[in-house]
Amino acid sequence: MAGETYGGEAAETLLVQNYRLIDGGLRFAYRHTLFSVNATNLADRRYVATCTGISACFYECERNVVGTAAYRF
Q: Taking Cα atoms as reference points, which of 10, 14, 25 lies closest to residue 49?
């Protein structure tokens, strides 16, 4: 969970609301291979992460899932 923040060019007048995300990961080893899957923003929530001005607010990343496999000799 990220708390409220303020942004803006003068007197920090823009309020960026707090938000809560769900992240997760799984890992599985089989013989000499390690498999893993990691995910961020599982609910695919759209939210403003930061504002630097009245017309410069930025959304954070959408759902992201990454899988890897590593073999050990």
A: 14
Q: What is the pLDDT of residues 33-73, one digit of tens each?
A: 999 999 999 988 888 877 777 777 888 889 999 999 999 98
CA–CA gap between residue 29 and residue 36 (Å, rounded) = 9
Q: How many domains does the chain have?
A: 1
Phi, psi (degrees; rounded to nearest 5) at 30 = -140, 115
| Domain range enclosing 27 | 5-71
Residues in a beta bridge with 43: none
CA–CA gap between residue 67 and residue 24 (Å, rounded): 12
What are 62's two structure tokens?
Answer: 């959408």
